[in-house]
Design brief:
The complex is a heterodimer. By secondary structure, chain A is an alpha+beta fold. Helices cover 25% and strands 34% of the residues of chain A. The longest helix of chain B is centred in the middle third of the chain and has 13 residues. The chains are: A alpha+beta, B mainly alpha.
């Protein structure tokens, strides 16, 4: 009964307003303004891109020797930095958008895990990117003055081909004797070779979608073909064999986009 | 009492803002190869000027900053030692010893944090600490300001550099920071080799290879043109920590025992080594890394070959460089010496 009273009062209020000519014009202007503005909002879509890291189904947890790869190595992750370059979004209306030159993801820097508030013209239907840098963008000192200490943290020595690391994945593993050892899975353009990997993913288009997730399954860096820490040892920057096997693994099922 | 009176009068009479009319300074251009060195970032309110650098140098060498006028910045940051202290710990005004080795100031302008524990976020901030530290200059800034304001020479110099009539600690710090940013080395034998001006010996070339590959794995922390990574690491010196380093600033358990990576430029001149100056020679430093160091809970994963249980077997792990390889690595490190920097009269009072 109370709500009916309020409804009746509102009806009376509106009819009173529309009985005045000038007030009617004013209300029309206001409604037009709201209508056109809301139309504009409908045309704009804003999304965030999130870089997430998993081991199997579970979100990566640092500093615990709990993960196991196909070789049967138990390992932990203590530090993880990697590069995604040439990130491109493709839209339902046929347009595409090339985002920043590269993204430097560093688990020590929470801000690096998300790209916020990207205005897109229509729903995103596909995403492409490169893990690491393609050869023409992997040049020593090219990113000399970039933010987030990128140059210092990711420089790849000229002695080993120059350019920048694609990835630094570091932690501990248990060796064949049950001893804990450190591993540094560092990848880059060893001896001038291009070990970067390019991807193209179709995703479900939706105007409601406010996030695009670019996920990594870290365990698959070491799976299929099998990568055994005991065989490759703690340091692989000079090993073309190790760089190649990780490239193959990364190509297959390390990244996914949703 | 007399000092107090002068201070009181200055407080009363000081007009902090200078007159903007006709104030001009001469820009100071830093010279370094900009294609291989990053742009040196500096605060927008403290760009280098000839007047600021001149004033900063005068302050750097003036014991007026210490409580008994006995030591200056230059007492512990000595040019011939690449602006570091050859003593393990520096001696303060009361004969007190510090507990960390004085940080070398060569190419300090490219650092993004300062002190071994990163407790200062800018060179300007860094200047404040030693002046009031009771085991260093043991002074207080009110006294420093009073002493400087009592000097007509300093009043003139601050007026010329910053257009202020009343000297304050902020502008003292700004001036010293300006001078410190000019302490640049880019003419070592390594730099000349990079430019194709000299040839390396076979030993130096092998040392370079050890340094820049995982044979020695020096480059991950000392890899760029300034031979430091603007970051913090636990380099496997101790199993337990008497100095907690970065943890003292962040309070994060994972930062216990982490210290700022120092530059290796002029490393020949900047002995002793490590945050506590425990190693007197480069041979000792190389032996430490060659051994792999010892395990602790925060040791950096880059220290891949730590040799204390349960991480490896002492004597059988570590880098396992031969004596010849260690000599070669040392030969390369010596190419980072810049005699011109050590003798540069622009850096002298």
């Amino acid at each position: 009964m109370a709500s009916n009273k309020i409804l009746l009062k509102n009806k009376l209020f509106l009819s009173n307003i529309f009985n005045h000519k000038s007030m009617r014009a004013f209300v029309l202007i206001i409604f037009s303004f709201i209508f056109f503005n809301s139309c504009e909002t409908d045309d704009e879509i804003q999304i965030d891109i999130c870089f997430r890291q998993f081991v199997g189904e579970n979100q990566l947890e640092l500093n615990n020797i709990t993960y196991e790869n196909e070789a049967g190595n138990l390992y932990s992750v203590e530090r993880f930095l990697y590069v995604i370059s040439d990130l491109t979004l493709y839209f339902e209306n046929g347009d595409f958008m090339v985002l920043d030159n590269y993204y430097f993801i560093n688990l020590d820097d929470e801000n690096s895990l998300k790209v916020k508030n990207i205005d897109i013209p229509s729903p995103c239907v596909s995403v492409s990117f490169t893990y690491g840098f393609p050869q023409n963008k992997n040049i020593t000192n090219l990113y000399l003055n970039d933010e987030n200490n990128f140059h210092n943290l990711m420089l790849w020595p000229t002695t080993l081909g120059g350019g920048y690391h694609y990835m630094k994945l570091e932690g501990k593993y248990l060796d064949n004797y049950g001893e804990q050892k450190f591993y540094n899975t560092h990848t880059g353009g060893l001896n001038g070779n291009d070990y970067s990997v390019s991807y193209f993913f179709d995703i479900e288009a939706s105007e409601e979608k406010s996030y695009i997730y670019i996920d990594m399954n870290i365990n698959n860096i070491y799976n299929d073909p099998v990568y055994d820490f005991n065989y490759y040892g703690s340091a692989i920057m000079s090993s073309e064999e190790a760089q190649s096997i990780i490239q193959v693994n990364v190509l297959e099922d390390v990244f996914s986009v949703s | 009492m007399k000092k107090f009176l002068i201070f009181f009068l200055l407080i009363v009479s000081c007009d902090p803002d200078g007159d903007d009319n006709d104030f001009e300074t001469t820009p100071y251009s830093l010279i370094y190869p900009s294609d291989i060195f990053p742009i040196m970032l500096m605060p927008e309110d403290n760009f280098l000027t000839q007047e600021g650098v001149f004033l900063g140098k005068k302050l750097f060498f003036d014991p007026i900053l210490s409580s008994d006028n006995s030591i200056s910045c230059a007492s512990c940051h000595i040019q011939e030692h690449s602006f570091s202290d050859p003593n393990q710990f520096s001696v303060g005004v009361n004969g007190d010893l510090g507990f960390r080795n004085a940080f070398s100031l060569v190419n300090i302008g490219w650092n993004s944090s300062f002190n071994w524990d990163g407790s200062a976020s800018s060179l300007e901030n860094q200047v404040f600490e030693p002046v009031s530290n009771p085991i260093e200059m043991a002074n207080n800034w009110q006294q420093v300001e009073a002493d400087l304001n009592a000097s007509s020479e300093y009043r003139d110099l601050f007026k010329q550099a910053f257009n202020i009539d009343c000297i304050d600690s902020t502008h003292v710090a700004k001036a010293i920071a300006q001078f410190e940013r000019t302490l640049i080395s880019y003419n070592s034998r390594y730099d000349k080799w990079s430019r194709g001006e000299v040839m390396f010996t076979n030993e130096e070339l092998d040392g370079l290879n050890i340094f820049t590959t995982e044979r020695g794995d020096c480059f991950h922390c000392h890899g760029n043109i300034n031979f430091m990574d603007n970051s913090f690491h636990n380099n496997a010196l101790d199993e337990t920590f008497s100095d907690l380093g970065l943890y003292e600033v962040t309070g994060n358990d994972l930062d216990k025992g982490l210290f700022k990576t120092p530059t290796l430029r002029n490393v020949e001149f900047s002995a002793p080594y490590m945050h506590d100056g425990r190693f007197n020679t480069l041979d000792e430093v190389i032996d430490h890394y060659n051994s792999g160091g010892v395990y602790s809970s925060t040791v950096d994963p880059l220290m891949k070959y730590v040799n204390s249980n349960p991480y490896g077997i002492p004597g059988q792990t570590g880098l396992l460089l031969t004596q010849q390889e260690k000599n070669n690595l040392k030969a390369f490190l010596l190419t980072l010496s810049d005699e011109e920097f050590i003798q540069n009269t622009d850096f002298q009072p």
